[in-house]
Specification:
Elements: H1 8-30, H2 34-45, E1 49-50, H3 51-58, H4 62-74, E2 78-82, E3 90-94, H5 96-115, H6 121-138
Antiparallel strand pairs: 1-3, 2-3
Length: 143
C-alpha cells in the first residue's frame, strides 16, 4: 500500500491547486475564470478560429467549451459567427472589449512568472517538457 507522499497524483494535485490559486486573484480583476482565460489566450494568438480549433488546442470537448464561449459572449468579449457555407461551423471572433483585455492581462504572465523566479531557464524548460510528455502519455489511455 502506498502512502500519500508516494502517490504520484498527489504532487500534481497540490501543484495544480497552488498554480490555480496564483491565477485566481489577477483573473478575478479581469472577470475571467482560468478556462475562460485560456480561451482568450488562444484567440489573442490568432483571432477568428473555429470552435473545433479552439477545443483541439485546449484539449476540451465541445460540451465543455460551448458554455465557456457562451459566457464570454454574454460579457461581450467574443462573438460567435456561423459559417454561411456550413451552418454547423462556428467561428469565434474577439470583440473590441475582448481585444482590449489583452493589454490588461499582460500582468498575469509577469505575476505567474514571478512564482518561478528561483528557477533557471533549464529547470523551467525541463518542467514544460516533462508536463508535455505526461500529457501525451496519459491522453491516449483516457479515451
Amino acid at each position: 500500500m502506498t502512502n500519500l507522499k508516494e502517490d504520484p497524483g498527489f504532487q500534481f494535485y497540490v501543484a495544480s491547486r497552488l498554480i490555480s490559486q496564483a491565477y485566481r486573484e489577477p483573473l478575478e480583476e479581469l472577470g475571467l475564470t482560468y478556462p475562460q482565460y485560456l480561451v482568450m489566450l488562444v484567440l489573442w494568438e490568432k483571432d477568428g478560429q473555429m470552435v473545433s480549433q479552439i477545443g483541439e488546442k485546449l484539449q476540451l470537448d465541445s460540451g465543455t467549451l460551448t458554455p465557456l464561449l457562451k459566457r464570454l459572449e454574454s460579457v461581450n468579449l467574443v462573438k460567435r459567427v456561423r459559417s454561411e457555407v456550413d451552418e454547423r461551423k462556428v467561428e469565434i471572433e474577439l470583440t473590441y472589449p475582448g481585444k482590449s483585455l489583452q493589454s490588461k492581462a499582460q500582468h498575469i504572465t509577469e505575476k505567474i512568472n514571478g512564482f518561478f523566479n528561483t528557477w533557471d531557464e533549464k529547470q523551467f524548460n525541463q518542467l514544460n517538457l516533462f508536463m508535455e510528455k505526461l500529457i501525451n502519455d496519459f491522453k491516449p489511455n483516457l479515451k
